[in-house]
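Collaborator request, handled under Task 6.
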Amino acid sequence: MRKISFIAILLLAVMFVMAGSNFQLFKRHKKLASVDSMAVNDSVKRDSLGRAIIDTTKMDSLQLAIYHHNKLVDDSIHLDSLNKKKKNGIDAPVNFSANDSMVYDAQHKVAHLYGSSNVKYETMDLKSEKIALNMDSSIVHATGVYKDSTKQLTGTPTFAMGSDNYESDTMAFNFKTKKGLIRNVYTEQQEGFLRSELSKRNNNGEIFMQHGRYTTCDEKHPDFYLALSRAKVRPGKDVVFGPAYLVVADVPLPLAIPYGFFPFSKSYSSGFIMPTYGDESTRGFYLRDGGYYFAMNDKWDLKLLGEVYTKGSWGISAASNYRQRYKFNGSFYLSYQDTQTGDKGMPDYTRQTSFKIQWSHRQDAKANPFNSLSASVNFATSSYERNNMGSLYNPQTMTQSTRTSSVSWSTTFSNIGLSLSSTANLSQNMRDSSIAMTLPDLNISLSRLYPFKRAHAVGKERWYEKIALSYTGQVSNSISTKEDKLLKSSLIKDWKNGMQHQIPISGNFTLFNYLNINPSFNFTDRMYTNKVMRSWDAKAQKEVADTTYGFHNVYNWNLSVSASTKLYGFWTPNRKIFGDKIQTIRHVLTPTVSFSYAPDFGASRYGYYETYQRTNSDGSVDLVQYTPYQNGLYGVPGRGKTGNISFGLDNNIEMKVRSDKDSTGYKKLSIIDNLGLNMSYNMAAKEKPWSDLSMNIRLKWWKNYTFNMNAVFASYAYELDSKGNPYVGNHTYWGMGKFGRFQGMSQNVSYTLNPEKIKKLFGGGDDTKKDDDKKKKDKDEEGVDTDIESNVDETMIDGQRKAKKKKDTSKAATDDDGYMTFSMPWSLTFGYGITMRENTSGTFNTSSMRYPYKFTQTLNFSGNLRISEGWNISFSSGYDFENHDISMTTASLQRDLHCFNMSCSVVLAPYTSYNFTFRCNASTLTDALKYDKRSGYSNAVQWY
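Structure tokens returned to the collaborator:
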């Protein structure tokens, strides 16, 4: 009984423990029960996912550990299921719209869009008349629709993804994998246009084409194209293709290539340069202008070219451009040629080596305001242009007789007003291969300063404070020789060098409030390193020169003073005779009188001039005077005392008239802009103290032309010696009561005639409209204004510069009667020059005591005619009045063929040549699709 009672009590205790609310077994059963009865039991708290919220505050440590472990396992399983769902879905929302209607097939999960439909997903943008979007496979299918009347496919898909744009007939695209299949695709890659019957796009954006076309023609039906059997396009980079052939005007040509590529890179890139081929009678067949282009970086590049001929001639060249933004920019060119003509071992075999160097450097003005460096070097051997094929078709290059080069550097010390500059100059005569070089030419200058000016001035400025002085120094080293002797010359014996100092002192004073007084004193000092002493060798009967080296100083000075003022005269015309339009006529006279003095530096005390006795073969003796410094760079002071009094008179006449166009109601008209007379008298001269009378006149009667003419009238008359030969005597024309002898003048006139100017001359045309039209036009990229004379086809010029022709969709201009306006822009420019001078080599007229006058005339004319859209003809010629023959004549014809450009130019004698070029406008094909035919200098065509 006791045993049974113990067992019963133990069972009751166990049951009591198991009946506790915090026991896990009952807790799990309770959770399951609550889940099953979730619809009817709303008192249990749950989270956003429908799970019951468990109270962990009532758990012991063991129960809490078990709970956290189970929760971690449940969360990881739940996260894996979410990631799996996301991987099978899309990463961003898909936006789609349609103007007409949208039908959703719920069973197949396909949305059908009709009427100007649009689907956008991330960077993808698809527009088409009809689109089908599959939600499960993420595939979108787009196509156009056929019109009932014309059976023409319209509303075709246009696809854009980033910077890539495509047009096609039908398109299937997976916007999740970014792969697609396209039929009849059309895309633009920089200057090129690609079409393909069937194309596939991978997830990298690359397109694989079958039966494609590549062209640079922007028309829907291109003028030409390359038919590609297959191709791979990397947008923005290049297109690589297999076998291809050329088709022009839908006609296949027998011009095929096994493979090729076209680069599309917008940035700089290195690559090969295709050579040109041809033949030249004296040097044989050639390949020229082929090489490699090195795109070093965005600051400089390098182009290496070569040429080779079958008869042994060859040449190489290097060209480079460099630019440092906001600092400097320039270009460099070096070319070397080895020219061989004829056959080796034969009498006509010749070999010449020539080279050319060009360097251009410009510094930005904002880079350094105190230092600057500029260069313009153009040096070539005399035989270079004759051997260079590129120069044969340029008349200006072939006829160029001189070349000049210079390199300049300067720096400024603004705090003391000192500037330092150095220049290297080179002048070439291409006819006789002579060279004149100055290296260096150093200049030092000190700006004007006032040494007597008070630092803290009080009261009026005193007269001595207006005295100013400055300084200029120059050091030069130069030589004149032949180009083949330049590098062999001696720096001491062959080069001329020296130093010069100039110190001018001047002042500016006003006397009696109206008279301007300007005194000045000038001191010039020259320093030479050698002098040449001369003597006479009686035995050899020749002059002997002895050069001595050392320091030699040669100086001179002079002083002058001038006085000038202005006199005004006014005249009001009679109103009854001239009306009231002319208000006043003003006459301004500016008389100038100056005096200058210089001593006789030919005196023996200065030592600038020496003498020696020359014994002639007949026994007579002459005294020869010379200067030992005649080879000096800066010359020597002149002989004889100078005491010149100069007179000058300038005249200006203007008229003031009423004008309704001017805002003030008046405007000034220039009658004589300037009429000047100048003459001088040398008080120190023993003979012929009067100088010739020089006159000049300047008229501004026309808006775009200023008339200038200078004339000289001799003061002394001709006389006859005992043999009847004329000479200039000591009697003046003024003393005879006559005006001075007219010695000559020169005048040049040029004028350009075009339709607009003709309309203006005959009262038609509106310049205002023309000016407004000009303002609306964009300025040419390369700085050339193609509308200067309104006779150049801008689209043709753009085509020649590899630019796309502009489309003009506007209506044609019509006249008042409704007919299309006829327009054929043209221009004709005339240039005429005449020089009149005494012909002293002619027969002297003893009755009039004059030489006959000789006239030298030149006539040049050039024209430009645009016969229609894209056609342009230009020419230039002239007439030689002395030889009574036509001067060099050139003519050219240009034709813009939309995708191609054709040009033909001819040069008539003496440098007869022709040049015909037909090439593609696009830069990617201009070296591949071209045809050049040109003549050589040895087989030039004789046109007449």
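The cover message to the collaborator said: "The longest strand covers residues 515-537. The radius of gyration is 47 Å. Please let us know whether this matches your experimental observations."
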